[in-house]
């Protein structure tokens, strides 16, 4: 059963459709990256899932609770990291977390214990004496994440979690997010950072103009959107005479003096054949490896296809 | 993973958590703290000095009454100055939190909209009110020591009630303003809609106190309580997650507003017959409750006027029956009656009254419009009462002089009043899911539909009857009596 089940969610502000027919399913222990440009509808989707905004149409269940009718239970089950950290700058970390803890009805000794643990985990303990206004952007973002985790929610909705962070802090937060998944939490990470989406997510949903235009694992997305895997074969000698030993059915894409790239839909069958045939012919192989395709390629391909589809619809 | 987290169960426990944080935060801000301290301690002492000097001065010139009246007035002022800060705190708490983007994490918690509203309102009220009460205490102690003056229990309760309710009006008004804006700057600009009326109220209260009519202060307290209720209801409508997060920018979308107005005005009608059908089947149905209220108010106006005639009786000689003869028609013609220009004049007067009532109604939740429409009914009632007092048959005169056109004019007034009431109340009875602007535009279109489709034709017909028919019926019915 999914921890997050959204079916045909739609949100309109007046005549503007911010989210259109969005369906998402996230299982416990799974991380879904909601990837899209600014204004694509990521934040509105997150706000609906956190029961802050009511959907105009559609329905969703968060940890089994209906977002439209069991708002309080949903908000208790969700830890939301908002796009803006939203800290009270005159407070100190302990006092800030104590306030949010009491809002969630957690007793003070538990708040204190969790505050100690989380501040330690996120390396904020040394800054506990400072007012939050004196924190760096990265520290603020980390504290906002601690706030979202304080009531130990089953669901985490993270809107641009590393947007304001330096590379080291961002790396630390990403590692923490991966660790949080091991607790059987369902996590949605909104981002427009392709690297982050690929590094964190089990699945990626690409959202554009309020619609989900692709939703799959990074590997499947790449396969679907940019075709068969590409292999690169590097030899210790010249390529001359070696090509005839390659198995049938492969598509040569590019080559140099000592290397060749080919695509195949069945690398697990084709690659062993290639290696054995070259070995039989006595041709020395240096490496045979998959050419990494970037998520950026996938993303641009998905968006282009959606745009051309849109153009065709408009032209009709 | 913890499942033990659960929201504070009662409205007040949740509100208290919010209020406690806000109050603590206020006391960290010297811009709030300094004026509160100043107005609590220094200002009452200054007023003590002023009061004792004034009492001495007017006593020397044999006018002690001025001193007697000045002391209670200064008591009110001592209470008012600290609570004037409440509006600043409320704007900071509501619009400021939104502008600093600290509101969304709070909205993501299980706290209800009501708990957030109550907590923030309490936090905006508590420190200024505490400062006001403390300031009043300091002032009273000073007076006791310096001029041995002690207020009556009634005056003290009145001043404390006024201070409290004025703060509540300002804070509930500030919440409404804050909910309609996205920045403290915009909220501050709009705050003059609260500050100016409250300043005028203070001037009025001071006049009442110098006049010595202290009982009127109770009526002011009552009126302010009603305003607080209305503003609180409006604030609760506006201060909700949906409304707060949907409003990202203060943009005036004239084209969108025009489209909404047009669509509500036409209400899907394809032709004038269709439009008129919808007017009667939908629009009139929607204002049936305001129609009932307006009818009751106009009837009350008539009865109040009738009753007033018993107290302020006109001399019987002015109701000379012989006046209603053929010459009377000539006299009336001289005033434009029985002529087309008279029709235009009367129609314009009625339309002008309707426009005025609408303008007043929009800014007073429809209240002043109802009062304005009530006035002619009160005059008619007074006229009928005066006839009765003069020993005449009032029903005969009303039938002759009023009824022929009132048969259309009164329904027009009732329907117009109901439409204005609906428009005035739009801000506090918004349809679910619509913003204030959208709700108000829709109500304005509804008002325009009713005014143009029903009220205006009725007023034209009533003006025609009043100018051409009523005088003739009056002569016919009354000349032979």
Write the layout of secondary structure elements.
The complex is a heterodimer of chains A (316) and B (481).
Chain A: E1 4-13, E2 16-26, E3 31-35, H1 42-49, E4 57-62, E5 65-66, H2 71-77, E6 78-81, H3 93-103, H4 108-121, H5 137-149, E7 155-159, H6 167-181, E8 186-191, H7 194-200, E9 203-208, E10 211-216, H8 218-226, E11 230-235, E12 251-255, E13 259-263, H9 267-280, E14 285-290, H10 295-315
Parallel strand pairs in A: 3-8, 3-9, 6-7, 7-8
Antiparallel strand pairs in A: 1-2, 1-4, 4-5, 9-10, 11-13, 11-14, 12-13
Chain B: H1 11-26, H2 30-60, H3 64-83, H4 85-99, H5 103-107, H6 113-147, H7 153-180, H8 184-190, H9 192-211, H10 215-238, H11 241-246, H12 254-266, H13 272-286, H14 288-311, H15 326-334, H16 340-363, H17 367-389, H18 394-401, H19 403-424, H20 436-478
Helix pairs in contact in B: 1-6, 2-3, 2-6, 3-6, 3-7, 3-9, 4-6, 4-7, 6-7, 7-8, 7-10, 12-20, 13-20, 14-17, 14-19, 16-17, 16-19, 16-20, 17-18, 17-19, 18-20, 19-20
Key terms:
heterodimer; A: 316 residues; alpha/beta; Rossmann fold; Alpha-Beta Plaits; 6-stranded mixed sheet; 4-stranded antiparallel sheet; 10 helices; 14 strands; globular; B: 481 residues; mainly alpha; 20 helices; 0% strand; flat
Q: Largest chain interface and its two residue counts?
A: A-B, 36 and 36 residues
Strand content of chain B: under 5%
Strand content of chain A: 25-35%
Q: Please report the number of helical segments of chain A.
A: 10
CATH third-tier fold name of the largest domain in chain A: Rossmann fold
Oligomer: heterodimer
Broad CATH class of the largest domain in chain A: Alpha Beta
Instruction: Please outline the major beta sheet of chain A.
Output: 6 strands, mixed
Q: Portion of residues in helices of chain A? A: 25-40%
> pLDDT under 50 segments of chain A (min length 5)?
none
DSSP strand count of chain B: 0
Number of strands of chain A: 14
The CATH architecture of the largest domain in chain A is 3-Layer(aba) Sandwich
